[in-house]
Amino acid sequence: MKRRLFIAGNWKLNKTAAETTETVADLKAKLADFNGSLDVALFPPFLSIAAGQAAAAGSPIGIGAQNVHFAESGAYTGELSAAMLKEAGIELVIIGHSERRQYFGETNETVNLRTKAALAAGIKPFVCIGETLEEREGGNMESVLKAQIVEGFADITAEQMTNLVVAYEPVWAIGTGVTASPEQAQDTHAYIRSEFAALYGQEVADKVIIQYGGSVKPANVAELMSCEDIDGALVGGASLKADDFSALILNAAALS
């Protein structure tokens, strides 16, 4: 079965509130004739979220957050809880991005806790998994991904699995200009889906949306999205310009 595509843009540490207003308004205009055949979202920095929400009003563009803490409250300076995000009208959140794992000590365990907190608050998590080049070349790709899945999704129910998105991002392809070939990406996505089938059964696994992330561009998105087990993209650099991101969205939508 082919699932509904979800194209999302992760802005990382880019764009002030004013820049967000300008870019989202431009994107909204460029998507005026968009047929709505796939889902679209942007994840700006925290302080630009409100500007993004205001600019995206009346459009199909969802606005989400790049992180959430697992505690409801407490001595966690600089963090935001799921309840805080929910009150701010946020219904989407990225969890466990490779940069969070690399620079801020995220682990499979904390990814699991954050995912549970988001789900409990009614926020859809975009849970990131992926291997480094060293792990892939060392023949450890499958063991790394399996650990991220088994530990990162521990105690997540089958029903909850249909209310989240999995984003596979090979770390070696993020921001490098290097993209996994469609064959590589499909093979890895198929493996990921097989691991979810082992945990939840094939019926549930067939419903899980698994995005690909890693130097996705307007020129390669259609080929990637044509793969059976790729259900969308978590886009970095190409989402920062309305021209590029709208072209990417429309190229993907042409497949739907």
Automatic annotation (TrEMBL):
<comment type="pathway">
    <text>Carbohydrate biosynthesis; gluconeogenesis.</text>
</comment>
<protein>
    <recommendedName>
        <fullName>Triosephosphate isomerase</fullName>
        <ecNumber>5.3.1.1</ecNumber>
    </recommendedName>
</protein>
<keyword id="KW-0312">Gluconeogenesis</keyword>
<dbReference type="GO" id="GO:0005829">
    <property type="term" value="C:cytosol"/>
</dbReference>
<feature type="binding site">
    <location>
        <position position="175"/>
    </location>
    <ligand>
        <name>substrate</name>
    </ligand>
</feature>
<dbReference type="InterPro" id="IPR035990">
    <property type="entry name" value="TIM_sf"/>
</dbReference>
<comment type="pathway">
    <text>Carbohydrate degradation; glycolysis; D-glyceraldehyde 3-phosphate from glycerone phosphate: step 1/1.</text>
</comment>
<dbReference type="InterPro" id="IPR022896">
    <property type="entry name" value="TrioseP_Isoase_bac/euk"/>
</dbReference>
<keyword id="KW-0413">Isomerase</keyword>
<dbReference type="GO" id="GO:0006094">
    <property type="term" value="P:gluconeogenesis"/>
</dbReference>
<feature type="active site" description="Electrophile">
    <location>
        <position position="97"/>
    </location>
</feature>
<keyword id="KW-0324">Glycolysis</keyword>
<dbReference type="GO" id="GO:0019563">
    <property type="term" value="P:glycerol catabolic process"/>
</dbReference>
<feature type="binding site">
    <location>
        <begin position="236"/>
        <end position="237"/>
    </location>
    <ligand>
        <name>substrate</name>
    </ligand>
</feature>
<comment type="subunit">
    <text>Homodimer.</text>
</comment>
<dbReference type="Pfam" id="PF00121">
    <property type="entry name" value="TIM"/>
</dbReference>
<dbReference type="InterPro" id="IPR000652">
    <property type="entry name" value="Triosephosphate_isomerase"/>
</dbReference>
<dbReference type="GO" id="GO:0004807">
    <property type="term" value="F:triose-phosphate isomerase activity"/>
</dbReference>
<feature type="active site" description="Proton acceptor">
    <location>
        <position position="169"/>
    </location>
</feature>
<dbReference type="GO" id="GO:0046166">
    <property type="term" value="P:glyceraldehyde-3-phosphate biosynthetic process"/>
</dbReference>
<comment type="function">
    <text>Involved in the gluconeogenesis. Catalyzes stereospecifically the conversion of dihydroxyacetone phosphate (DHAP) to D-glyceraldehyde-3-phosphate (G3P).</text>
</comment>
<dbReference type="InterPro" id="IPR020861">
    <property type="entry name" value="Triosephosphate_isomerase_AS"/>
</dbReference>
<keyword id="KW-0963">Cytoplasm</keyword>
<feature type="binding site">
    <location>
        <position position="215"/>
    </location>
    <ligand>
        <name>substrate</name>
    </ligand>
</feature>
<feature type="binding site">
    <location>
        <begin position="10"/>
        <end position="12"/>
    </location>
    <ligand>
        <name>substrate</name>
    </ligand>
</feature>
<comment type="similarity">
    <text>Belongs to the triosephosphate isomerase family.</text>
</comment>
<dbReference type="InterPro" id="IPR013785">
    <property type="entry name" value="Aldolase_TIM"/>
</dbReference>
<dbReference type="GO" id="GO:0006096">
    <property type="term" value="P:glycolytic process"/>
</dbReference>
